[in-house]
Amino acid sequence: QQMLPSGYPRTTVFAYGTPSVPASFHSPAFTIEARYNRPVRVTWINQLVDANGNYLPHLFTVDPTLHWANPPGGVNGRDGHSTFTSTPPPYTGPVPLVTHLHGAHVTEESDGYPQAWTLPVATNIPSSYATVGSYYDRYKAEAATRFGVTWQPGESIYQYPNDQRATALWYHDHVLGMTRTNVQSGLTGLYLLRGGPADVPP
Hints:
single chain, two-stranded antiparallel sheet, 202 residues, globular, alpha+beta
């Protein structure tokens, strides 16, 4: 994406967009405009894979010594931190994602909880890796019960009731221990809620 002035090199970013419209992917992402008391349902998909279906490594250095999503920890070690006897190299595996609408009134399965992340559906993810966070399956079941939706691998389907006063919100990645790097990579956008008794007349 051309982040710098014309004539300078383009910048590689991660971005939100519509899968059927490749040109829609950019950072910041398109603004979502919602109406008061009119629910919005969004399917958030982790598609950080290349043309061959292999996962894309992160654009920035990921410190695996922190309390973080930790896909290499497997199902039992995910969402935690490992003990190391020497300094490990940076994490270069698939990028976990989970999207949070900051400041929105939501039920828990649609919150973008840091431990409800998912990896992309990639062909080269090691079999020992956890592919979802420790809360993903619980919230997947809750979404099926509450909204009748079925989450597919690599995605989460969230519903926003928009029952709060008119406001400007923002959505961003929220994965445990990596929010800073994922937001810095470009995964952010605005969400404007309009209408209702508290809105300013047009």
